Amino acid sequence: MWHFARGGAQEGPVVEDELAGMLRRGTLPPSTLVWREGMGSWQPASEVPALWASVGNVVQPAPGQPAAVGAPTNPLAITSLVLGIVSFVLTTLILTAIPGAICGHIARRQMRDSPHPQAGSGMVTAGLVLNYLAIALTFAVILFIVGIFAWGINSVPSPTGPPPPVVVPTILIGA
C-alpha cells in the first residue's frame, strides 16, 4: 500500500496499480512524493524503481502544455468573483453584489459536497469579500444620502420668518 503527497496533504493508502495509473495518465506528476512501509523517507515517484517499473509508458503532454490537468474550476466561483469586480468597476454595487454573494455561497457548498475535487476556493473567497464590501458600501451611501437630506430639511429657514408679536387688547374701564 502506497501513500502520496498532493497539495501539501498526505493521501492514501492506495494499491500500487492505482498509484501507477495516476502517474501514467498524468494525474500525478513524476515528482510526486511517495512512501510505503519499508522506505526510509518520502521520495519522488520517478526515483522509486519498484514503483516506476509498474508505471510503464507515461503519457507525455504536448510541448508547451501543462504536465497534469488540474481539477475543474467551479463555474459559480468564477461568477461570484466576476460579479464582485463588476460591483466596483461599474459601480452597480448592490445590483450585482447580492447575486454575487449568493453564487459564492452556492459554489462553496458545491465544492464542499462534491465527490470530485473542484478548484476555485480562492475565487470564492475573493468574490464573497468583494460582494459583501459592495453591499456594505451601498448601505453606507444610502445612510449618507438620508443624513444629508435630513440635515437639509432641518437647516432650511422657515419661509414666513419669525412669528408676529402677539397683541393683547386692553380695555380701560372708568378713567
Descriptive labels:
175 residues; alpha+beta; 4-stranded antiparallel beta sheet; 4 strands; 50% helix; 10% strand; rod-shaped
Output the number of helix runs.
5
Count of folded domains: 2
| Proportion of strand residues | 5-15%
Number of strands: 4
How confident is the prediction overall: mean pLDDT? Answer: 83
What is the helix content?
Answer: 40-55%
Strand order of the largest sheet: 2-1-3-4
Distance between the termini: 127 Å
SSE order, one letter for each helix or strand? EEHEEHHHH
Q: Quick one: overall form?
A: rod-shaped
Major sheet: 4 strands, antiparallel
What gyration radius follows from the Cα positions, in whole Å? Answer: 34 Å
Q: Please mark out the parts with pLDDT under 50 across 5 or more consecutive residues, or reply none.
A: none
Given helix and strand content, the structural type is: alpha+beta
Question: Could you characterize the architecture of this molecule?
Answer:
With 175 residues, the chain is an alpha+beta fold. The chain has 2 domains: 2-55, no CATH class; 75-154. Helix content is 50%, strand content 10%. The chain is built from 5 helices and 4 strands, in the order E-E-H-E-E-H-H-H-H. The chain has helices at residues 16-25, 49-55, 75-89, 94-113, 121-155, and strands at residues 2-6, 9-14, 33-36, 43-44. Strands 2-1-3-4 form a 4-stranded antiparallel β-sheet. The longest helix has 35 residues, at 121-155. It is rod-shaped and about 135 Å long.
